[in-house]
Amino acid sequence: MTSLSLPSPAKLFPQPPSQRRPPSPQSLTTSTHHHKRKPKFETLKDNLIRHADAGDIKKAISTLDFMAQNGLTPDLTSFSVLLKSCIRTRNFLLGKLIHSKLTDSQLELDSIVLNSLISLYSKNGDWFTAQTIFETMGDKRDLVSWSAMISCYAHSNMELQAIFTFFDMIECGEHPNQFCFSAAIQACSNVEYAWIGMVIFGFVIKTGYFESDVCVGCSLIDLFSKGLRDLNMAKKVFDQMPQKNSVSWTLIITRFSQLCDPRSAIELFLEMVLTGSVPDKFTFSSVLSASSELQWLLFGQQLHSLVVRSGLLSDVCVGCSLVDMYAKSTADGSMNDSRKVFDRMPVHNVMSWTAIITGYVQSGGDDREAIQLYHMMMEEGSVKPNHFTFSALLKACGNLTNLELGKIVYCHAVKFGLAYFDSVGNALISLYARCDKMEDARRAFELLFEKNLVSYNTIIDAYAKNLNSDDSFDFFSEIEDSGVRVDAFTYASLLSGAASVGAVGKGEQIHARLLKAGFESNQCICNALISMYSRCGNIEAAFQVFQEMSDRNIISWTAMITGFAKHGSAERALDMFNKMLSSGVKPNEVTYVAVLSACSHAGMIDEGWKYFRSMSEYHGISPRMEHYACMVDLLGRSGFLEKAVQFIKSMPFVADALVWRTLLGACQVHGNVELGKHAAEMIHEQDPNDPAAYVLLSNLYASGGQWEKVADIRKGMKARNLVKEAGCSWIETENKVHRFYVGDTEHPQAKEIYEKLDQLAAKIKKMGYVPNTNFVLHEVEEEQKEHYLFQHSEKLAVAFGLISTPKPKPIRIFKNLRVCGDCHSAMKYISLATGREIVVRDSNRFHHINNGLCSCNDYW
DNA sequence: CTAGGGTTAG
User: What keywords sit in the KW lines (predicted)?
Assistant: First the structure.
């Protein structure tokens, strides 16, 4: 037993006087009952074990010290019980204290205590101390020591050491048991070492541990799912496991959910419930996340009620998953249910706070509420934000284009020491990009601690969205050179960059690259290709991509319908829509915007009304502002201005600037000054600084020749420091984008361009073209007006297209604003005179001009 | 004394 001559640990670890006093009678009832007698060793030991088992380690340690003070040196079993309790309750600090007391006791340590120490340090993340103990064990090493050490390495990102240790063990003549096997296989559950895992798998089969042990089965599921990315094999392992429990069920459900197959995850969950296994909090978190991935609200609600019935609602993680599920699944972006769950949670942690904040940022985008919640979180004070919290918050600031707020948020991230996470750095890049600060975005990119694919994708996307496709392509080459493998996201950004500038040549190049990289069947990319070709003016190429897709989703259909609508093919758009319905895909809000705008572009009033009604009647989608704006457009363009006003008044909510701007546009087309003025007033009521309203109104007055009013408006704009967006047209030739502004002489071939324009002017006048000088918005002489007309940016671009591209190719022009009426008419004549097809994308739609006719039927 | 499952993300 114990030798009484050893020094008392209490002398080596003096405690504050208050604690050095003998424990109170309450805590040591049996021993101090007859305080005059010497306390008995066995009694004290029993007390110690009782405290340790109850998890009250402090009391157990007091007892230990008390023993020592009374000359009764504790035995190994007492220490061992204490250590186990520390490990169980993850109280590493006291565990280390016991280790030092153990060292001071100079007892001869046995395998059990040493193994406990390895486990203690391993769980505390201190692999080095664990290793030191393991190495000094000598022949005291047993299977437990080996398993603990292998597992320690496997959990410390030292997979190779874990594997070596496993083979060392075999060389030492040990026969691995299920613990060793599952630890070693865990170390192999990654792409790099999966092949070693397969070798070990062979051992497992031979030794029969696969049949006998659920844990070994679980580690094999991970070997196949995480190591070999083969869910089918993982499922086979699972199916062949003779015993299943809630852990193995949850594991297989989670892997399906994580590896992009949430449907199967949910099917497995149902199978689990039907076969009588009881889902626990882990299972619910996992299956809820699969459900939110699919946005299956109804199923999510059923899970919610199951959670309630299972009494798991108070678990933080389950609550967090519910918050996330409601945020992602609620179709109209309402956060109400999500918030309700959040508010009723008894305890919050970083994840639940972050989940609700992220929910607000991503769902409908109540970014202010997200920031508000951050304030609440800080005030509440018990939870520290993490890098996920900050990337969500920075995104909120980007959505609000509030750079000042973003900077404050970023400072908080710096203070919390989280700024070096790449997710935070990347969010900062996005923030600057959203606020139109590309130089700062670029600097933030250069200063990143570590650039990963997401960083490249972020900056590429930023350049693409800021109409700077050249820079985004440069970055693309840079990534390719650096050997980083690009992903679908990269291609999608590049395609949307090409699409927004209308660089079809660049778009085709990317198409070729992604074919080579094997992304041709990727749904997201195909959708991006459809919209790229369509937005670049090549609707047939878009349609071809669409037809070749094997798996179309709502986005594919909507992209195609939008494409046909913008290109003025209302019939094909509506045909697509009906085909979509019969193929069983449910339309969403965006689809209806496309359908209604198809009707409006084609002047199909009755059809438009029919579809407008059907959206709520048959598909339960309540019309949003955009849909009302489409209907106002439809009525307004057809000249039913009064009806349009009635319609606006009948709306269930207050019309916003978009709706009024649409009406103002219609007023301009139909020359209704009074109503136009009213519309402009309504716009300025909501946004006194909206330059578009001033410009439209000024155009309206100008076309009626009311020059004083035009001048008044200009003065008003000047006083408010408002600048009208400059009209700009561009054209891509040989992969280069050429931009033109009104009266531009910057282009190297300017001389040729103006000569060409003079020629054209003469030619088309002979053919019957009459310049419509109403489109010149200054009060000048007629001749001068005509001169101005022929400096319009779209005409310059057409002239450049004619001299720089060969004949059968259509000339594709892009304009940031709506195409001018005179240019539209002139281009029709030009198409007739030159036999060239001219395709114009303006801010509203496409014009396919051929043989003197335009696809818009002069109705836009 | 040794082993297995979950949540927030650009």
Answer: Repeat
pLDDT for the residue numbered A36: 54
Calculate the angstrom distance between C1' of B1 and CA of A62: 23
The span from the CA of A220 to the CA of A647, in Å, is 64
**Helix intervals (H) in A174-213:** 178-187, 194-207, 209-212
Sequence-separated contacts (24+) of A515-522 with Cβ below 8 Å: A517/A486, A517/A491, A519/A488, A519/A491, A521/A550, A521/A551, A522/A488
- At A821, phi and psi to the nearest 5? -60, -40
For residue A589, the one-letter residue type is E
Q: What is the mean pLDDT of residues A219-228?
A: 94
A595 close to A628: Cβ distance less than 8 angstroms: no
Contacts of A311 (CB under 8 A, 6+ apart): none
**CA–CA distance, A711 with A602 (Å, rounded to integer):** 35
- Residue A60 CB contacts under 8 Å (≥ 6 apart), including other chains: A48, A49, A51, A52, A81, A82, A85
- The CA–C1' separation of A395 and B8, in angstroms, is 15
What CA–CA distance (Å, rounded) separates A707 from A689? 22
Kind and range of the H or E run holding A839: strand A838-841
A138 Rama sector, left if φ>0, alpha if ψ -120 to 50, beta otherwise: left
SS3 for A334? coil
Average confidence (pLDDT) over A29-49: 72
Q: List the structure tokens of A772.
A: 């419509």
- pLDDT value at residue A11: 36
Q: Which residue has the tokens 């092949």?
A: A195
Give A182 CA → B5 C1' in Å. 14
Q: Which nucleotide is nearest to A398 (CA to C1')?
A: B10
Domains of chain A, by residue range, sit at 1-108, 122-244, 346-433, 434-672, 730-854
**Whether A97 contacts A62, CB under 8 Å:** no
Report DSSP state, residue A849: E
Q: pLDDT tens digits, residue range A590-645?
A: 899 999 999 988 888 888 999 999 888 888 888 888 899 999 998 888 888 889 88
The three-class DSSP label of residue A847 is: strand
Closest residue (CA) to C1' of nucleotide B9 is A388
Q: Please state, as a whole number, how many other Cβ atoms lie within 10 Å of the Cβ of residue A75.
A: 15
**Rounded Cα gap, residues A469 and A2, in angstroms:** 80
**Cα-Cα end-to-end distance for chain A:** 99
Q: Nearest CA to the C1' of B10 belongs to which residue?
A: A423
Q: What is the DSSP string of A376-388?
A: HHHHH-S----HH
Using one digit for the tens of pLDDT, what is the confidence trace for A137-193? Answer: 999 999 999 999 999 999 999 999 999 999 999 999 999 999 999 999 999 999 999
> Tell me: the pLDDT tens digits for A288-314?
999 999 989 999 999 999 999 999 999
Which residue has the least CA–C1' distance to nucleotide B4?
A: A215
Return the SS3 of A672: coil
User: What was the pLDDT predicted at A85?
Assistant: 93
Tell me the CA–C1' distance in angstroms for A169 and B2.
Answer: 14
Q: For residue A854, what are the β-bridge partners?
A: A849
Q: In the complex, which nucleotide's C1' lies nearest to the CA atom of residue A328? A: B8
* Both structure tokens of A549: 């897709």
Q: What is the dihedral of CA A231, A235, A236, A242, to 10 degrees?
A: 150
**Which positions of strand B lie within 7 Å of protein CB atoms?**
1-10
Euclidean distance between CA atoms A775 and A790, whole angstroms: 11
Q: Which of A208-222, A251-265, A741-755, A777-791 has the lowest mean pLDDT?
A: A777-791
Strands (E), A680-743: 728-733, 736-741
What would the CATH number be for the domain defined by A434-672?
1.25.40.10
**Tokens linked to A296:** 């299956």
Tokens encoding A202: 């062979």
